[in-house]
Amino acid sequence: MKIKKNILDTTFFHAALTTMPIMFGYVSGGIAFGLLLTSKGIPWIFAPIMSFFVYAGSMQFIAIQFFLSNTNLITIAIVTILINCRHMLYGLSLLEKFNLTGKFKPYMIFTLTDETYALLTTLKEINKVNKSKFYIYISSLNHFYWVFGTILGAILGNTIKFNTKGLDFTLTALFLVILIEQIRSYKTRLPLWIGATCAIGSIALIGKENMLLPSIIMSILFLMIFKKRVIQNEHN
């Protein structure tokens, strides 16, 4: 007796395959976060709670220092906005895709990370796949990988002592790998040079502590100016 796969199974299968590289990065990054958090004497239960309700990657690593120094809530809020404000800018390019997800749109916005954005903006069209469910599965799977990794790391850190030096670089390493893959997938290098120039220019003008938001804004402006050239170079 043959069992025919329905579209939901096919869609989930493709989403799982698509997010496989993120799974390895997020689980290992989550483990690093869980280990680092428990090594500072913070109760392990904070790891899954933060990962499920905050889900902010690098901000969660920074938050560990906030906990230890008893930083006030206003400072935490300002730093969080400055670090994650990039999502408000590049998330605009995904509104059309998010609109397809209906009532899940708020969840899609909440679970938008750098890595999820990289996947959603470089996806190839797949036949026999429900697009809205495909996007939802990608976001929810990535969310699950991160939460699972932090739970595993917190449990391990609560039972075994580890040397946690350098663990906070895990997410940076993952993002660099994704960046390299994106560069390889495009013919034109103009967006790369625009981003690099804006980043270096921002560091030179205002310092590395405050360079993120200005460099993103400048990159978007220059990409809008050179949009036609980028499209032409990509199709040549």
UniProtKB/TrEMBL annotation:
Its subcellular locations are: Cell membrane
Q: Which GO terms describe its biological process?
A: L-valine transmembrane transport
- Give the protein name, as stated in the record: AzlC family protein
The main location class comes to membrane
Give the record's family classification: Belongs to the AzlC family.
Q: Which domain of life is it from?
A: Bacteria
A cellular component annotation (GO) from this entry: plasma membrane
Return the Pfam families for the record. Answer: AzlC
| UniProtKB keywords | Cell membrane, Membrane, Transmembrane, Transmembrane helix, Transport
Membrane protein topology class? Multi-pass membrane protein
* Lineage, top ranks: Bacteria, Pseudomonadati, Thermodesulfobiota, Thermodesulfobiia, Thermodesulfobiales
Q: Where is the signal peptide?
A: none
Transmembrane regions listed in the UniProt entry: 12-37, 44-68, 74-95, 134-160, 166-183, 190-206, 212-230
What InterPro entries does the entry give? Brnchd-chn_aa_trnsp_permease
